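=== Structure Prediction Worksheet ===
Name of assembly: unnamed complex
Input type: mixed (protein and possibly other molecules)
Chain count: two
Listed entries:
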Amino acid sequence: MSISGAPQAGKVTISDLAHRLGISKASVSYALNGQSGVSEATRARVLALAGELGWYPSSSARALSHSRTDSVGIVLFRDPEQIGAEPFYMSILAGIEGVLGAHDMNLLLRMVDPGAVPDERMRDLAVYERWAGEGRVDGVILFDHVRDDPRPPLLDRFRMPYVRLGAGPDVLPSVRNSNVTVSQAVDAATVVEALRERGHRHIAVVSGPAGLVHEEQKTEHLSSHAASLGMTVVKCRSDYTADDGGTATIAVMAGLVPGSPEFPTAIVYGNDLMAVGGLQALKRLNLSVPGHVSVISWDDSILCRLSSPGLSALSRSVSEFGKNAAQLLLELIAGHEPRNIQARPGVLQARESLGRNLL
Amino acid sequence: MSISGAPQAGKVTISDLAHRLGISKASVSYALNGQSGVSEATRARVLALAGELGWYPSSSARALSHSRTDSVGIVLFRDPEQIGAEPFYMSILAGIEGVLGAHDMNLLLRMVDPGAVPDERMRDLAVYERWAGEGRVDGVILFDHVRDDPRPPLLDRFRMPYVRLGAGPDVLPSVRNSNVTVSQAVDAATVVEALRERGHRHIAVVSGPAGLVHEEQKTEHLSSHAASLGMTVVKCRSDYTADDGGTATIAVMAGLVPGSPEFPTAIVYGNDLMAVGGLQALKRLNLSVPGHVSVISWDDSILCRLSSPGLSALSRSVSEFGKNAAQLLLELIAGHEPRNIQARPGVLQARESLGRNLL
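=== Predicted Assembly ===
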């Protein structure tokens, strides 16, 4: 490839090649498509010139003849401003891109603001329908699963391959559908047992938005595992933002006296942003971390390492989730059997925010 | 649209419509393309059924006939792991997506790891060349401009519209090229004057990677404006990561005694991640912020508000940069005149990390 060569008038066409070589367009086309009807010597000349001038088959023409777009789609159904603040999405996209780029596949990205859709129940479905109808993508990766999620039936109807990222371990692969499953039960047990062995008996859980299946499972497993170990749990629903994580923290802790029976000695947050907001709220309440309250969050993004005190977290290889999902989708697109990959369980990353309960 | 209707065999084709209506494929095609050769009554029946079944023109067929892909491309030329940690990119993508989504345009995203390309000088050019050659995108947005940047000449050669985001104010629009320009001089003056009026006379600058034009301009303007006000500056090059920002901080400050003439009483960082790493390094050096050293960073992402002490920053509306760039690119694609938008200057957001120099 030469970028400093003679300027060319945009894209190189089959006509250009034919004109330069002094042969017919049909001959060029035969040569490029590996068809008979042209001598091997001519074929070699055509291919050499095509390579030199940077000729590529038009993606539109290829898509029409091969029914492949070499593109994978992702729709993030969330307020774009929130997406901009959430390290989870960028990490997972980086993991996905690492695999797609290595296979010369393109990523088609769309963000749909739930507050701006005309009909809440139809959420982001119009994008999938349009992509399928227009033949834009070879498959999609789904995040943020909800109860009675309308996306899988829609995609099934369009015969569109899809991978659910972060599905529960009970979700089975089906026709044109593979899954990266995450066991919230195992991760919840890791967190609860880390708190119990440090002496905590009464904890609080600040969880993400209602309706997200993985978040509901996480909260249920945190509660039931704590109960099975004789611990008590208070729960407060938040929305994954730092601001509301702080508000939820104040709702749970304000007015409670350290040492009293109802005082939670540890707070578990459903994501890192809420935990960082929680740390600030605890400071305003004059509660020291981990002196009065221990804090554990979920994911272990860069926010945890950079916060002060350092945030303990259930550390998950988010970019690996993305890599696995991309790998599964490429397999489906290539016609391989659907299958699930069980994500590696999270590992507790203990930092300053996690202390022994000495009350 | 009905997602619970009778299952359909994938995509609806013109043949399907013709079969259901009992008319020829040619008639359906005439009706859908607004051509004559079909009665108005038949046209109405065809359009009604097409709407009901969710027929869309194939994007490949449309691209061939209209030379439009309804897609915009962005290549991030940086280690994907670093991209995952950098709030700047996700914010700017959110801004871009907000505009593209409202116009039903798709965003094609690619990340290219500089450490993984076969030839460093060719950087990510192969992606642009391929997109242009295959007719994948209608235009691209460029970040992270370098000296003698090879991307604009390549895109000019392919007649591909592009918008430079974050170009210097001296960059003029050209054929098929608009720009969102940022004045590093104005922003640097804002930061230097905020420090001077708080009594600082000797400051340090920890800058991002060599070769990035905006980063070099930023450092030059910080130095020259400080010099014009009788202040002195020490400079240290870093790489935009938190870890190296910490290392650079130690390189600048270690062994210096607060109160001595060579001790910088304030450090300016080229981005938020390096500043957060710097805060941690200063803690290890037993230097208090802002007691011994004030800290100001660049961008004011969510990291600044969440860090402790709160990080003062030159606050820039990063998502607005993205919105402006997307708007300019849509104009170019629609055939409007190229033009520049001058981004609004940054505003100093003072938080705990900025103190008066009382040494």
